[in-house]
Amino acid sequence: MNGSRVLVLNSGSSSVKYQLLDMADGSRPASGIVERIGEGPVADHAAALKQVADELAAEGLGLDSPELAAVGHRVVHGGTRFTEPTLITDEVVQEIEKLIPLAPLHNPANVTGIKVARSLRPDLPQVAVFDTAFHSTIPEAAARYAIDVATADRWGVRRYGFHGTSHAYVSRATAALLGKEPAEVNTIVLHLGNGASASAVRGGRCVETSMGLTPLEGLVMGTRSGDIDPAAIFHLSRVGGMSTDEIDTLLNKRSGLAGLCGDNDMREIGRRMGEGDRAAQLAFDIYIHRLRKYVGAYTAVLGRVDAIAFTAGVGENSAAVREAAMRDLTAFGIQVDGVRNALRSATARLISTEDSRVAVAVVPTDEEMEIASQTYHLVSA
């Protein structure tokens, strides 16, 4: 293999994001996004991928470049079948398609992107990197739900977890920030974006995560409810007369911060709180309450916590969220420095005080680099 570049593709239902990364020097010669697939001139994913190829060719970085070593694809759900980056074959594509019932909104688009990319460069190694893979090390006691085992096994009902590429990257980057190897560090990673998840990482291996069978479980999110009593669904169906699809839409698209106060942008919620808006304040308080519950629970799971890392859009940019989530946790060995927390930076940094027993960090995530690294490592081995 002569090339050192990896093209990372993230094929969503209505968009394709791409980045070209050079693993020799860490540079990113190109990146972009094709949106509104199915509307206007971009009729389908084939047209979107052709547009990506054309944009790269216009910059002298075409798919036929000898410097291109591989294509790395983000795939949301790998089930229990895929627990590490996997070289894509016809059989692998078929297996990913079998997992569509577990991720009906994501895996179909992921598969389409894979098929189109393979048709454009059938000779080039292409690798699937799964969002669920990093969480495959969770012990059975944490992965199992307390329901009938035969039913759970028949339908694949268990905790899979998501945002795995982010949690993997951030947990390792946090260890590096502390000047230690991942195996030496126990970390709670808080990936807080419009979708939000927490993970407990012991010595580089995930042992617990907040998202479950689907990305709906866990923290309060932009439009998703997170944890809720399952019987609420029966109540809404029997008493409220709501259909399964209506409840699905409610919990995934009309809940979370948006359901609580009408906004899912933490910046706007902060502005409204400053004006005394009670709905915005309550939404923020519920968001923080759930977050703190998970920090406490994962402290118990890990036994010893060396670091807490905030990442993703809200985690990296909202000093108010970080301050509120870590407030009055000195009994846990957690102390945040207000000045450090208020500073904005695009690089990984500590925001804890010098005498805080637990390091608190802000670590920008880089899922594209994680996918590229895993892809390149596999094809160059």
Automatic annotation (TrEMBL):
Keyword ATP-binding, does the record have it? yes
Q: Which UniProt keywords apply?
A: ATP-binding, Cytoplasm, Kinase, Magnesium, Metal-binding, Nucleotide-binding, Transferase
Query: Where this protein primarily resides, as one coarse class?
Result: cytoplasm
Question: Which Pfam families does the annotation name?
Answer: Acetate_kinase
Identify the catalytic residues.
Answer: 131
Cofactor(s) needed for function: Mg(2+); Mn(2+)
EC nos: 2.7.2.1
Q: Where does Mg(2+) bind?
A: 10, 367
The superkingdom listed in its UniProt entry is Bacteria
How are cofactors bound according to the entry's free-text note? Mg(2+). Can also accept Mn(2+).
| Cellular localization per UniProt | Cytoplasm
The entry's family comment says:
Belongs to the acetokinase family.
Q: How does it assemble?
A: Homodimer.
Q: What is this protein called?
A: Acetate kinase
